[in-house]
Design goal:
This protein is α/β, with parallel strands linked by helices. 35% of the residues lie in helices and 24% in strands. It has one domain: Metallo-beta-lactamase, Chain A (4-Layer Sandwich). The strands form three sheets. Strands 1-2-3-4-5-6 form a six-stranded mixed β-sheet, covered by helices on one side. It has a six-stranded mixed β-sheet with strand order 7-8-9-10-13-14. It has a two-stranded antiparallel sheet with strand order 11-12. Bound molecules: zinc ion (ZN).
């Protein structure tokens, strides 16, 4: 079975991820903040929604749940909502904690849960825990924790929690495809260049993403290998980032968590 992953654009810059297969018409949605665009996608492609995966409680990720449950009910179709156990998710009957496994048989999809406190306290990600996909690709749905070239704001957690969460993601296999929930890449890379202006991979990637966005093409998914090269929030160990963070903070920063906390604060006002 070959899985397919398609972006459903929502609001101004959200991506709702639609997981399907070439073999049947079943559908799983990740973070459906807007039911209308999902229902249009379901009807246009003649699909059956069987499950929803939620990464965290923010409305632009959960706002479509109730309408999608009602949509399925009106056709007498079952719909299972998965979400973080530590957050209050509407209609969630499968609360998840770290290392829980989500098994969607219809799509031959097995995902492992990773706890990622920081953006919110109960934020989770889903990563496929085996190589069941035919092309051996690893996939990660990480909501608002890791973005391409950036990371989520610290709404609820501490910088230390977010630093630890991002380390969990950067230790995933290099070929893991990163399906984050927003098209923030170009703005993130503009900031990244201010923090690490001599990073040659970053300079080249900025040019590449600029061209993609001029053509209105998505820059997502990214891959973990690239994020480790260009994302300043995974690069607190970089000497150049440390020097620039120290200039911004106007004090000596003693460890990588302090460097991370400083650039996260810097980005908030950039
Ligand atoms: Zn959020």
């Amino acid at each position: 079975m070959t899985q397919t992953i398609t972006a459903i654009p929502a609001f101004s810059d959200n991506y709702i991820w639609a997981i399907g297969s070439t073999d049947n018409n079943h559908l799983v949605l990740v973070d459906p903040g807007d039911a209308n665009v999902c229902i249009e996608y379901i009807n246009t492609n003649n699909l059956t929604l069987i499950a929803i995966l939620i990464t965290h409680h923010h409305a632009d990720h959960t706002g479509g749940i109730n309408a999608l449950v009602n949509f399925n009910k009106s056709m007498d179709k079952k719909l299972t909502i998965y979400g973080p156990a530590k957050e209050n998710i509407p209609q969630c009957e499968c609360p998840l904690n770290e290392n829980d496994i989500v098994n969607i048989k219809e799509l031959d999809l097995t995902l492992r849960v990773i706890d990622l406190p920081g953006h919110t306290l109960g934020h989770i990600a889903y990563v496929n825990s085996n190589n069941s996909t035919e092309n051996n690709t690893n996939i990660l749905f990480c909501g608002d924790t890791l973005f391409s070239g950036g990371c989520g704001r610290l709404f609820e957690g501490s910088a230390e929690q977010m630093f630890t969460s991002l380390n969990k993601l950067s230790s995933l296999a290099d070929n893991t495809q990163v399906y984050c929930a927003h098209e923030y890449t170009l703005a993130n890379l503009t900031f990244a260049l201010a923090v690490e202006p001599n990073n040659q991979e970053l300079i080249a990637y900025y040019q590449h993403v600029s061209q993609l966005r001029q053509q209105n093409k998505a820059s997502i998914p990214s891959i973990i290998h690239r994020e480790k090269q260009i994302n300043p929030f995974l690069r607190a160990h970089s000497a150049e980032i440390k020097i620039n963070a120290q200039k911004y903070a106007a004090k000596a920063l003693t460890n990588n968590i302090d460097v991370f906390a400083t650039i996260r604060q810097w980005k908030d006002t950039f």
